[in-house]
Specification:
Helix 1 (25-46) crosses helix 4 (70-86), helix 1 packs across helix 6 (117-129) and helix 4 (70-86) packs parallel to helix 7. The longest helix has 22 residues, at 25-46. The protein has two domains: 25-68, Arc Repressor Mutant, subunit A; 78-215, Orthogonal Bundle (Tetracycline Repressor, domain 2). It has eleven helices and no strands. It is elongated, with a radius of gyration of 22 Å. It is mainly alpha-helical.
């Protein structure tokens, strides 16, 4: 007697968060954009694969050709966004210009990206979902913040080595600079819905750069 495979059963392969080889970039983007709308509305925990597929306008079998799970979709969305936000802006060299100019450009770009609605939504989702999905936090850090911090530290090491600044702990100094730039804006954006104007961002960053350079000035 011949055994007939059950119709409609899908075998889910472990493919990680990236699209499978040979798949359509347009279809992949369609799935991701539809999934993002669902995640923002009801979170990762509340979303079902059926709902994700429906919002994206694809079948479940099609969705599984691109991603192994809803967690893989969520992780892809978060990591790709933070990589686009980082965008190499933290990679600085002393030869590119004066520290005041470069740090101002970095700070303005950092704050502008941080205040994007998609970035704010991503932070909100990470805070709420990481306790249930503990792999999300480390993946987010590795995709963006850790990479940016490493590049900033390399620049500060160069400034210290050449005597432009005097910094004992460049890792701590990098964290301090970004904290000075952020200045509580992220908290107020989440709790009060406040979004700073471009002019306010520029004022905050200018002050942060002045305080930072004075604090680490080489005498």
């Amino acid at each position: 007697m011949k055994t007939v495979p059950a119709r409609g059963r899908q075998t889910r392969r472990s493919v990680g968060p990236e699209a499978l080889s040979g798949s359509s970039p347009a279809k992949r983007a369609q799935i991701l954009e539809g999934a993002w709308k669902v995640f923002v509305e009801i979170g990762l925990s509340g979303a079902s694969v059926d709902r994700l597929a429906e919002e994206a306008g694809v079948s479940k079998p099609t969705l599984y050709k691109y991603f192994e799970s809803k967690e893989a979709i969520f992780l892809t969305l978060i990591t790709e966004h933070v990589r686009s936000v980082e965008g190499g802006r933290f990679t600085l060299k002393a030869s590119m210009g004066p520290p005041e100019t470069l740090l101002k450009e970095l700070g303005i770009g950092f704050l502008t990206a941080l205040m994007q609605q998609r970035t704010l939504d991503a932070f909100r989702l990470l805070v709420s979902e990481t306790p249930r999905f503990p792999d999300l936090g480390p993946a987010f850090e590795a995709a963006g913040p850790a990479r940016g911090q490493k590049a900033l530290v390399a620049y500060l090491d160069e400034l210290d080595r050449t005597g432009v600044l005097a910094i004992d702990d460049t890792t701590l100094a990098g964290q301090q600079f970004l904290a000075l730039c952020e200045g509580g804006l992220l908290r107020r954006a989440h709790t009060r819905g406040e979004r700073p104007s471009r002019a306010r961002i520029e004022r905050i960053v200018a002050s942060a750069v002045e305080v930072f350079l004075r604090g680490y000035a080489a005498f």
